[in-house]
Amino acid sequence: MDRIALAQKTAAVLIVSPAEEDHISLGHILGGSNWRVRAVCTCLEALAVLREKQTQVVICERDLPDGHWKDILDALTLMAHSPPLIVTSRLADEYLWGQVLNLGGYDVLAKPLDEKEVLWALNSAWRHWKRHWEKAKRVQRAVA
Fold it and tell me: Could you tell me which CATH class the domain 11-143 is placed in?
């Protein structure tokens, strides 16, 4: 399996977690790939990055020092081309998974993070984002 199958382009992933080991683990998993990785620790930092830079996927720890994944999801739903949200947690049970999907998140990954699961979820989320982006561009051209 390719480490990341991103069709020749570089894409950006935002990692939101107060845990340094998450930043290190995901950095290792995505090292040498086409993903540009930006890691922050808080909701406030994540919101600043999302306002400044286009991001194709967000990976967010369930609990953050100044909020939680729902706060990030709420901010993403206000964006024109919002990136999919993948939530990570040591307590990734059926309740969390159902809650994330029902509220509009993309996936849940259990910690410790498994490289194959991370890559599958990230690639799948990116393809989802790309399809919506291309559809929006077609609609804009048709309206213009």
Answer: alpha beta
